[in-house]
Amino acid sequence: MSIESSKSDFLSRIAPSSNVWVRRLTALAPVWTLLALGLFFSLASDSFLRPINLRNILAQISTLAIFTTGMTFILLLGEIDLSIAEIAGLSGTIATTLYANMKIEEPWPVLAAIGVATLLGFINGVASTRFRIPTLMTTLAMGLMAAGLNNYVSKGRVNNNVPPISSFLGSGKIPVPVVGDVPVLIIVAAITLLAGYLVLRYTRFGRYVYMTGASKPAARLAGVNTDMILIAGMTICGFTAGLAGIISTGRLGGSQPVSIPSYLIDTIGAVVLGGTALTGGRGGIAQTVIGLLIYGTLRNGLDSIASIDVFLKDFIRGVVLMAALVVNVLLSGRAPRDKSN
Predict the structure, then answer these.
(1) Nearest CA to 57 among 144, 185, 230, 224?
(2) Which domains does the chain have, with CATH numbers?
(3) pLDDT at position 305, please?
């Protein structure tokens, strides 16, 4: 046997194992990003690792966590929803209007608001599948309609008469032994993320979401009704946007006549930062949790360093997030797709 053939045989044997380790390391790129940010801010700020500050981070990302749960379904399908911020704003306005102006007793104002948001998500899905309109355009139009309805119903005014249920979900606290008072919105966010994880991980619908996102034609050939899966995903995203709107209203102490634009950017950014592919079929709720922690760590960490100019914080945040997105997306492109079983 020649030296060249021996070398080739040796490389062919070690290549598979080395590829496995490369895939494992690149799949953990978001985790390395989170650890690096946590280490940096813990060294740069004495207050960063204090328990009360860590709890503040969880509270700050809780509303975003509810948004990202629904968006994870959409991105796994290889689609996009640009209407979540406007639907959330409309949800809060409907709840406060029904409760304060129309004197409808609870829990109907909150249920009606979430119901309308869910219906709008359903309409997004039906319009995209029935008329073959790209979700980019469907949800963009829905966002404009929801924003217009919000302005019309609110008459451009902030309504501070918030339903007690919304106030409890957004600002309430529950005493927990040893831990102390825990904000209710953290508990709601954790339950929402857990529900999304269980659906994607252990249900047939979750497997179909991955199959549809990985290859829609192949999923159709396997007998999956991809249109119904997309409609269901859009409906879920509408529901989580409505729930996030109710919680945001309770936390801010009033419904807003205009949507908060950062909700959309932060939601998509957090999901992608965690490793969920924009092209669909790869990622999940576990990755979204990592992306949320990266977002929360970065925002809170920059605020904890007094020496950083307040006018530079948004720029620094954007630079770090852009770098993390580029690294994570490039590396995750080498990782294998999630299995659907």
Answers:
(1) 185
(2) 32-332 (1.10.3470)
(3) 83
Q: For residue 31, give Cα distances in angstroms to 38, 48, 130, 293.
A: 10, 19, 40, 10
- DSSP conformation class of 104: P
Helix (H, G, I), strand (E, B) or coil at 182: strand
* CA-based nearest residue to 281, from 227, 225, 332, 215: 215
CA-based angle 96:98:100, to the nearest 5? 60
pLDDT computed for residue 183 by the predictor: 93
Q: How far apart are CA 78 and CA 219, in angstroms?
A: 13
Give the Cα separation of 301 and 214 in Å (integer): 36
d(CA 95, CA 109): 5
pLDDT above 80 (res 268): yes
Is the distance from CB of 149 to CB of 113 less than 8 angstroms? no
Asked if 53 and 300 count as a contact pair (C-beta separation under 8 A), the reply is: yes
Please determine, for residue 165, whether its predicted confidence score (pLDDT) is greater than 90. yes
CA distance 50 to 47: 5
Give alpha helix (H) positions in 155-223. Answer: 164-171, 184-202, 204-214, 216-221
